[in-house]
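User: I've been going back and forth on whether these two constructs are worth ordering. Before I decide, could you fold them both?

Assistant: Sure. I'll take them in the order you sent them. The first construct and its structure tokens:
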Amino acid sequence: MEEHFKNLITQYLPYFISVLTLYTVKITGDKNKNAWILTMLNQMLWLLWIFVSGNSGFIILNLGIIYLSVVNHFKWKKA
């Protein structure tokens, strides 16, 4: 991967996805039916950051949130 692109991901992506994380928590609280889908997409961005930056300590949290988002999406879809 080009070094410049890697630096952009590791240095700046966390700001964007942190704000997106806060937004997904807000819309989940508002019971927005698309909240869990956006949460899953957000976690995919975190997964990209984890692999590119080498911060493997976050992988368990990331995969757990992806799993819970899928489960909760289907729970809300039934309701």
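The second construct, handled the same way:
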Amino acid sequence: MARSKRKVHLSELQLAILRVLWKRGEASTADVVAELGARRGLAPTTLATLLTRLAKRGVLGQRRDGRTLVYRALVSEP
């Protein structure tokens, strides 16, 4: 069954996370924190929460690599 194309509304911070994933292909929480955390003054737990919520919404896919969660974008870049 083909996926339907639906508009996904994202905040600027959510888009910044997606840009990291589009650039890298896949990234762990630590990778996203390293890229965005200091620049935006965000705690690692904040970014981890955003990644989890985006995965629950179906915007990101996630897999386990040992104890690490690795994320990838399931939506295409505009």
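Notes on the second construct follow. Strands lie at 26-28, 60-65, 68-73. The radius of gyration is 12 Å.
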